[in-house]
Amino acid sequence: MKKALVTGITGQDGSYLAEHLLAQGYQVFGMVRRASTENFERIAAIQDRITLEQADLLDQPSLIDIMGRIQPDEIYNLAAMSFVPTSWSQPVLTGEFTALGVTRMLEAYRHACPKARFYQASSSEMYGKVREVPQTETTPFYPRSPYGVAKVYGHYLTVNYRESYNLFAVSGILFNHESPRRGKEFVTRKISDGVARIKLGLATELRMGNTDACRDWGFAGDYVRAMWMMLQQTQPDDYVIGTGIAHSVKEFIEIAFDHAGLDWKKHVVHDPRFMRPAEVDHLLADNSKARRVLGWQPEISFETLARMMVDADIARLRHATRV
Ligand code: NAP
Ligand code: F7E
């Protein structure tokens, strides 16, 4: 039985990846940081089938300790401070988690279990103010937030450790991916949750920032398959993962409100508090390498994703409030 260690297992991607790995017959170990209250909502359904280990990206000895004890075959480094606006208000902590955290993970890996395979969660935010359209594995980076800058560091460090120490370390450059498990501050989930609240009479308006921004949005369940596929190749390499189709925030709003039988113009209010100091205007993936080499392709469309998220939030709030 293969062993996988997943950091960030309590997050959106970690929970879907853990389910995928269990379905492939892996023994799954999840790294969690100590908190005064448990934060296991997303992994509640699989908690009795996985092993949780306490460690922290800020604490080098704890990382060496869990990798040394578990001796994983595969390591998926998904843990990070992942919300872009917080990276301006907490830039130093973002650097510690999202940049230096990768160094600590790679150091633990090369000393404690160098025969393992390592996945780093890189991001389309590295392209920022894009240098070419669509973006490929060779498009130069131009990050627009402390988060994007930190991810560029983690990306190049992963490449450097692969080349310096001959490790099987790969970097997945994933474009935005969403699901009913997405954190509620990210734009898609903010909209689906807002639509559900308005539909059930719990709210009347939804306050939004820049609705002209465009992203290449996919479904998180499809994207964790790509992470796993990258670690099954004969050679370590980096891959862009996205759908190849971009949509605006406004389009997501229209589909989500329409699906609930609501007119978005009556409810959506512009709020400058949600504008960013530097914006990423338009991201679009060229996923041809992933399709060709990995045989990966996305299954869930943008429209299906938006409707799935609205349905899930309406069902969740109906259950919670018995409306
Ligand atoms: P998420 O839902 O925000 O989850 C982040 C995870 O990191 C949580 O489990 C969190 O634990 C953990 N974490 C944060 N700081 C930690 C620390 N100091 N020590 C240990 N664990 C820590 O993020 P996601 O959407 O699943 O994304 C997964 C990864 O992919 C992240 O690295 C993100 O930056 C990257 N990424 C995401 C996307 C996307 O569209 N979703 C696209 C490209 C790249 P707690 O539960 O304790 O907070
Ligand atoms: O914003 C605009 C906002 O916060 C998307 C993370 O997973 O994907 C994510 O980063 C767009 C931006 O995601 C609101 O200005 C408008 O242009 O959902 P988001 P993100 O910043 O693209 C990448 C790939 C990651 O790696 C990150 O970890 O939507 N927008 N109005 C808004 N965004 C938010 N959050 N809230 C608004 O009210």
What does this structure look like?
The protein has 323 residues and is α/β, with parallel strands linked by helices. The chain folds into two domains: 3-177 and 217-241, NAD(P)-binding Rossmann-like Domain (Rossmann fold), CATH 3.40.50; 182-215 and 246-282 and 300-321, UDP-galactose 4-epimerase, domain 1 (Alpha-Beta Complex), CATH 3.90.25. 41% of the residues lie in helices and 15% in strands. It contains ten helices and 13 strands. It has helices spanning 12-23, 60-70, 86-89, 91-112, 146-165, 187-199, 220-230, 249-259, 288-294, 302-321, and strands at 3-7, 27-32, 51-54, 74-77, 117-123, 168-174, 177-178, 206-208, 214-215, 218-219, 239-241, 247-248, 268-270. The strands form four sheets. A seven-stranded parallel beta sheet has the order 3-2-1-4-5-6-11, sandwiched between helices. Strands 7-10 form a two-stranded parallel sheet. Helix 1 (12-23) packs across helix 7 (220-230), helix 6 (187-199) packs across helix 10 (302-321) and helix 8 packs across helix 10 (302-321). The longest helix is centred in the N-terminal third of the chain and has 22 residues, at 91-112. It starts with a strand and ends with a helix. The mean pLDDT is 98. The site of ligand F7E has 22 residues, from helix 6.
